[in-house]
């Protein structure tokens, strides 16, 4: 296992992201939900640049105790990253596809050490 | 360009949007698969005629209507003439190119911006020839004023044949038919057939005009004689009474995009139009593929019980449907590949299926959706991606493939 330097830790604030090259591949590194995440910038759908997409909280329905619908809201505990080609959403914490849990992004371990951020490949 | 998130910390800022960059991974796919050596004809892709709406409105013949259109456009934009509807194809900014595409910087190399932007995505996808269609005009079939559809159809058809198509031989179109007016429809095919880049004509399916009306027969006869395909391009309209039963765009789209094509196709077959126009090439566009086995089975089952209601038919309805052509997108690639494989068999995909991307719309399909299918032989992939279209449209591909193309 080797490590790729991403950037200085201070450069990647909450909501920030960096794209780094790994040979011909690109890896997207994001700080979101207070943690660092790294994914291959290739969506399992048709190969879109998923790491360049919108980070947004999961949407959920509000259903009352009597089963009636009361609208929608964002779930403040679950962040998604959305592939910009067609809109597939992925849970940032797990990399799993929100619409089909059998599919997932390729994840890499991220290390924050001595003021630097590294991806293990 | 700022795209809002659920929390400002995650707002997405996209500066310098560039189609080639957006589709960089598509270019990598094409390289990895050697698709530049494969003829790829995209039978259904789009531009936004609203990007050039004022110049198009200038082409309206009727001076009074043109006057209204141009003045109203100043404050109301394209809704001055088009039949707008609610909806958010970009899923609220998630499909980012909807918001960013308009601000894309295009070098002024003498070509029309429209053409340059189109060539960018074509090159990324390795598409050799693209059949361009408009976008919001796909909702015009429900416009309450038939004369507006007639006027805009001619204005758009003149604009695309005079301004866009002549500028690059890789661009083609099946021109918009003002189908709510059968006489204007006939005039359109007479006027525009044979113009450079015109490879057929297109009916927007979302409308309440039955395809079997006698008034259309001379148009069908003309197209059959000219060897030009007639296509039915699906769309939806959320204001349509049936579609308005849906409260979410996903339902309006999933159902709405198949419904009108299914009804028109059933009417086409049951009224024996394939017997009346056996050489007319009919193409069903952008309803995906899953609806075809459904309709084949429904019609075959009913036909054997109610043969007297479709006396023109000499074969089963599904057999006529198997002689028709279908575009691939949006191909329902769900987790049941057996269903897809069976669908390909049921429609004789090897000869009848035509690749389409629908780019730049949100549910676009890359050529890899065909190239990577494990159940297809290489020749079938080549047929679907381009060779079938070459045959159907009688395409001259010599500018892209001066030495011919493998498998063709
Ligand atoms: S390629 Fe990512 S959503 Fe389609």
Tell me what the structure shows.
The complex is a heterodimer of chains A (121) and B (408). Chain A has 121 residues and is mainly beta. The relative contact order of chain A is 0.26. Chain A contains no helices and 10 strands. In chain A, a hairpin with a 2-residue loop joins strand 2 (17-22) and strand 3. The mean pLDDT of chain A is 97. Chain A is globular and about 55 Å long. In chain A, the strands form 3 sheets. Chain A has a 4-stranded antiparallel β-sheet with strand order 2-3-4-8, with no helix packed on it. A 3-stranded antiparallel β-sheet of chain A has the order 1-10-9, with no helix packed on it. Chain A has a single domain (3-120), classed as 3-layer Sandwich (Rieske Iron-sulfur Protein). With 408 residues, chain B is an alpha/beta fold. Chain B has a single domain (30-393), classed as Metal-dependent hydrolases (TIM Barrel, Alpha-Beta Barrel). In chain B, 42% of the residues lie in helices and 10% in strands. Chain B contains 17 helices and 10 strands. Chain B has helices spanning 19-22, 24-33, 53-57, 63-76, 97-100, 113-125, 146-164, 182-192, 217-226, 249-270, 273-276, 291-305, 317-323, 337-346, 349-352, 368-371, 378-393; strands at residues 2-3, 12-13, 41-46, 129-133, 171-176, 198-204, 230-233, 282-285, 325-327, 353-354. The longest helix of chain B has 22 residues, at 249-270. The termini of chain B are far apart. The relative contact order of chain B is 0.13. The model of chain B has no long low-confidence stretch (mean pLDDT 96). The interface between A and B is medium-sized, with 26 and 28 residues. The complex binds FE2/S2 (inorganic) cluster. FE2/S2 (inorganic) cluster binds next to loops of chain A. FE2/S2 (inorganic) cluster is lined by residues 43, 45-48, 50, 83, 85-88 of chain A.
């Amino acid at each position: 296992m080797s490590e790729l330097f991403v950037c200085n830790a201070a450069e990647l604030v909450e909501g920030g992201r960096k794209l780094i090259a790994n040979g011909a591949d690109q890896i997207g590194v994001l700080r979101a939900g207070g943690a660092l995440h790294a994914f291959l910038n290739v969506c399992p759908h048709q190969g879109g640049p998923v790491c360049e997409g919108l980070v947004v909280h999961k949407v959920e329905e509000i259903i009352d105790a009597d089963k009636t619908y009361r609208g929608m809201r964002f779930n403040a505990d679950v962040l998604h990253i959305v592939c910009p080609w067609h809109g597939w959403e992925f849970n940032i914490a797990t990399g799993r596809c929100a619409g089909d849990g059998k599919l997932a992004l390729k994840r890499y371990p991220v290390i924050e050490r001595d003021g630097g951020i590294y991806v293990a490949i | 360009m700022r795209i809002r998130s659920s929390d400002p910390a995650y707002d997405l800022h996209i500066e310098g949007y560039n189609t080639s960059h957006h589709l960089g991974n598509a270019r990598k796919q094409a390289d990895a698969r050697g698709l530049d050596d494969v003829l790829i004809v995209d039978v259904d892709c789009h531009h936004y005629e609203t990007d050039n709406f004022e110049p198009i409105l200038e082409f309206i013949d009727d001076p009074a209507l043109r006057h209204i259109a141009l003045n109203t456009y100043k404050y109301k934009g394209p809704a001055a003439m088009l039949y707008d509807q609610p909806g958010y194809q970009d899923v609220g900014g998630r499909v980012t190119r909807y918001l960013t595409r308009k601000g894309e910087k295009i070098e002024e190399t003498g070509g029309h911006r429209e053409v340059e932007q189109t060539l960018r995505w074509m090159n990324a996808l390795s598409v050799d020839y693209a059949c361009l269609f408009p976008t919001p005009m796909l909702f015009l079939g429900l416009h309450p004023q038939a004369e507006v559809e007639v006027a805009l159809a001619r204005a758009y058809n003149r604009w695309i044949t005079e301004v866009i198509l002549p500028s690059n031989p890789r661009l083609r179109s099946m021109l918009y038919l003002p189908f709510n007016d059968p006489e204007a429809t006939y005039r359109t095919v007479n006027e525009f057939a044979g113009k450079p880049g015109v490879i057929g004509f297109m009916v927007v399916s979302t409308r309440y005009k039955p395809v079997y009306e006698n008034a259309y027969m001379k148009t069908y006869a003309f197209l059959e004689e000219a060897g030009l395909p007639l296509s039915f391009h699906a769309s939806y309209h959320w204001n349509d009474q049936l579609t308005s039963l849906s409260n979410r765009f996903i339902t309006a789209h999933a159902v709405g995009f198949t419904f009108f094509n299914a009804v028109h196709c059933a009417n086409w077959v049951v009224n024996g139009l394939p017997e009346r126009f056996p050489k007319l090439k009919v193409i069903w566009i952008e309803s995906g593929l899953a609806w075809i086995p459904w309709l084949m089975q429904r019609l075959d089952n009913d036909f054997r019980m109610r043969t007297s209601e479709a006396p023109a038919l000499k074969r089963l309805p599904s057999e006529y449907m198997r002689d028709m052509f279908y575009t691939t997108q949006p191909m329902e690639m769900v987790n049941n590949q057996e269903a897809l494989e069976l669908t390909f068999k049921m429609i004789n995909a090897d000869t009848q299926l035509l690749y389409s991307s629908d780019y730049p719309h949100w549910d676009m399909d890359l050529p890899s959706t065909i190239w990577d299918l494990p159940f297809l032989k290489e020749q079938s992939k080549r047929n679907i991606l381009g060779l079938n279209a070459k045959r159907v449209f009688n395409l001259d591909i010599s500018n892209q493939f001066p030495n011919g193309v493998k498998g063709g």
